[in-house]
Amino acid sequence: MSTTAAPADITKWSSKDGEFRRQVSSFRSMVSTDPNAEFPAEANRYHLYVSLACPWACRALLVRELKGLQDLIGVSVVSYLMGPNGWEFASPDEVPGATLDDINGAKYIRELYFKAEPNYSARFTVPVLWDKKKQTIVNNESSEIIRMFNTAFDDLVAPEFRGITFYPEELRQQIDEINEWIYDTVNNGVYKAGFATAQGPYERHCKALFESLDRIEKILANNEFLLGSRLTEADLRLFTTIVRFDPVYHGHFKCNLKQIATGYPNLLRWTREIYQLPGIAGTVNMEHIKKHYYMSHTQINPTQVVPLSNGPDLAHPVVKPASRPY
Questions:
Q1: The three-state (H, E, C) secondary structure of the chain, written as one string
Q2: Mean pLDDT, residues 231-240 taken together
Q3: What mean pLDDT comes out for the span 135-158?
C-alpha cells in the first residue's frame, strides 16, 4: 500500500495561539440493520482497528465487550508508540498486547486511510471501523461507532445481548446533554490543557476541567451512575478518560489540582464499579497507556521516562452494582 505522502509533524498539536483544536473525523458512514444499506450489518464483515492507549478507541472496545460482539467484529491493535508515521502495527512478541494487521497487511494505520482515500490529508486516528468486503473505512468517529455497536448488530448477537442498550430512548436527551459538556471540558479538556503551549489556554482549560470533575463528583454522590442506576454511554465515554487520569493526565498533561484517588471518592467508586464489569478490565492496558503518552509526546516529555504509578487499584475493593446496571 502507498505511504508516499510525507508525514506531518505529529508533535505539533497546538495552533499558533497555543490552543489545541481537535480535528473533525472524516469518515462518517453508518452500519445499518437495513440489508439494502451501503453498509449492512453482517457477521465478520467489519473489523475494528484500535490503540489500547487511546481513550477514544477504547470506547469502542468497551461497547464491543458489553454487547457481545467479539465473534462478529474482529480487532487489530497497534503498538503504544506513535512515531513519525503515526500508529504502527507490531507483533505480540515485539509489543505484548499489540497485533499485526492480518486483514490488510498494513504496517501503519495511515496505509488504511490512503487505501480508502488516496488523497487523504488529515490525521491518521483510531478507532477505525473497516469494511472487509468493500475494502474501505466505514467510520473513524468513536461516538458514532459505539452507537452502531449499540444497536446495528442486535439481530446477530447471542440472545442474552439482544436489547441491551446504552442509549435508551427515554434517556437520550439527558445523555446528549451530559455528553456535550463532559466531552468539551473533560474528555477533550485534558488534551486542551495538556497540549496547550501558552499559559492562558492551559490555565483556562485546566480550571474548566476541574470544575466539571467537581460537578460529576456531586452527581455521583447521589447516583450510582451519571444518570441514576442505569449504565449508559455517558458513563462509558467518561470512563476511558478517568481511568487514565491519575497515571497520565495529572502529571503528563499538568492537570494537577487534584487526583481521582485522593480528591474524588465518588468518582473513584464509580470507576471501580465499571472496571469490574465483565470484560472491561481487559480493555485497560496500563503499559500501553503510560508508554504511549510518556514516550510518544516527546515535545512534552523529551526524556521518554515513564512514571511508575498505575494510579488507584481498580480491582479492589469490590464494588457490586445495586442492581443489573444494563
A1: CCCCCCCCCCCCCECCCCCECCCCCCCECCCECCCCCCCECCCCCEEEEECCCCHHHHHHHHHHHHCCCCCCCEEEEECCCCECCECEECCCCCCCCCCCCCCCCCCEHHHHHHHHCCCCCCCCCCCEEEECCCCEEEECCHHHHHHHHHHCCCCCCCHHHCCCCCCCHHHHHHHHHHHHHHHHHHHCHHHHHHCCCCHHHHHHHHHHHHHHHHHHHHHHHHCCECCECCCCHHHHHHHHHHCCHHHHHCCCCCCCCCCHHHHCHHHHHHHHHHHCCCCCHHHCCHHHHHHHHHHHCCCCCCCCCCCCCCCCCCCCCCCCCCCCCC
A2: 98
A3: 98
- What pLDDT does residue 9 have? 52
Mean of pLDDT values over 90-117: 98
Which of 54, 58, 206, 255 is catalytic? The answer is 54
Segment 52-93, tens digit of pLDDT:
999 999 999 999 999 999 999 999 999 999 999 999 999 999
What is the spatial distance between Cα 137 and Cα 145, in angstroms, rounded to a whole number? 12
Give pLDDT, residue 6: 43
Asked whether the predicted pLDDT for residue 124 surpasses 50, the reply is: yes
Report strand pairing: 74-77 vs 46-50: parallel
Is the pLDDT confidence value at 12 over 70? no
Active-site residue 54, yes or no? Answer: yes
CA atoms of 280 and 274, how far apart (whole Å): 7
Q: What's the CA gap between 286 and 208, in Å, rounded?
A: 26
